[in-house]
Each structure stands twice: as structure tokens, then as C-alpha cells.
Amino acid sequence: MREREKKKKEEEEEEEQEEEEEEEEKEEEEKKEEEEQVKEEEEEEKEEEEQVKEEEQVKEEEQEEEEGQEEEEEEEEEEEQVKEEEEEQEEEEQEEEEEQEEQEEEEEQEEEEEEDCV
């Protein structure tokens, strides 16, 4: 009788131990899965951050390019203005020259007329 009880108790203890071990394994498995999930989430976060960084860099480059274009356009406008001013000046000088020539011709003509009169 005693032997049986002893055996039964031993079996129960063994069973209990097995259950505990299974429980522990299960917990460890769950822990591992959680850690992996955390890792995956961190990696996703990293990727998102990198994407955001890249997008910001692209935006920055586009802005710089736009500013460069604006500067170029401004320079071209300035050059155009300078050209126009130079052309205007040339025209004015030409007009002055023509006026001077006309005046000289008139004076010559007047002199000739005076000489003719005399």
C-alpha cells in the first residue's frame, strides 16, 4: 500500500514538474515573439525615419534648385535691362550726332547763303 502511494505521489510530482516546464517554455516562446515584434517595429520606425530624411533632402534640393533658377532669371533680367539701357544710350548718341550734323549743315548753308548775298 505504502509503495503504491509513494509511486502515485512521485507520478503526480513528475506530472507537475512537466507542466511547469511546459509553462516555462511557453512563456519563453511568448517572450521571444514579443522581442521579435519589438525588433520589427523598431526597424519599421527606422525605415520610416530614413524615408522622411530622404524626402526632406529631396525637398531641400528642389528648393535650392528653384532658388538657383530664380537667381539665374534675375541675372538674365538684369542683363536684359543693361542691354536695353546701352541701346537707349546708343540711340541717344546717334540722335545727338544727327542733330549736330544737321546743325552743321544748316550753318554751312547759312554761310553759303550769306556769301551768295555778298
From TrEMBL:
Residues 1-10 have a biased composition (Basic and acidic residues). Residues 11-118 have a biased composition (Acidic residues). Residues 1-118 are annotated as: Disordered. This is Uncharacterized protein. The lineage of its organism: Eukaryota, Metazoa, Chordata, Craniata, Vertebrata.
